[in-house]
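so i finally got all the pieces together for this one. its two components total, 225 residues if u count the protein bits. some of the lines might not be protein, just check the labels. i wanna see the whole assembly predicted at once instead of chain by chain like last time, that was a mess tbh
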Amino acid sequence: DTGVSQDPRHKITKRGQNVTFRCDPISEHNRLYWYRQTLGQGPEFLTYFQNEAQLEKSRLLSDRFSAERPKGSFSTLEIQRTEQGDSAMYLCASSLGQGMYEQYFGPGTRLTVT
Amino acid sequence: GIQVEQSPPDLILQEGANSTLRCNFSDSVNNLQWFHQNPWGQLINLFYIPSGTKQNGRLSATTVATERYSLLYISSSQTTDSGVYFCAVVGYGGSQGNLIFGKGTKLSVKP
């Protein structure tokens, strides 16, 4: 059984460019979460999907961020017009269900905006 | 929202020593997980432990849900145990189910 995978692992981009990250959850996991982690902090929740439906977004997710999960399988997170403050590790997690189910994390995508 | 506090923030050990990491949370939870973040940033699942005690090799964890804390024990530490340890919870009744993380304990094990 493969774990959660993310692509790319590293991304360096110039301010103002758009970037897109991909997450492939563990198969049969219907919950998929995106988190962001900045240096010295714990991960913070961005958004989550139940199958293909995006059910919640945190206030951290500005209008420049958009996420999709077509057909309830993989998910993409796009950041438009990147800013230096977007530099962070973006983590994806999946679980079988809500709340009481264990979440499993991917290796993350480290974004650097120059 | 629910608050998660971890202590100590930093811990330096000599190889072979034992340690205890603590996680306090401010409200009832229906999920509590301990993670080890390796130097490459990967979060490794250590324990899913909303209550009770579990052991896995040199690591064990105890959560006392009624008193709102969890402890992670590392025995006979090795240099490979170095990294950041995170406690994360899902508040009871949290509709999103997202984990709320503490700030972590940074562990350095010296040879």
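The mean pLDDT of chain B is 94.
The interface with chain A takes residues 4, 30-31, 33, 35, 40-43, 45, 48, 50, 86, 88, 90, 94-104 of chain B (CB under 8 Å).
anyway lmk what u think
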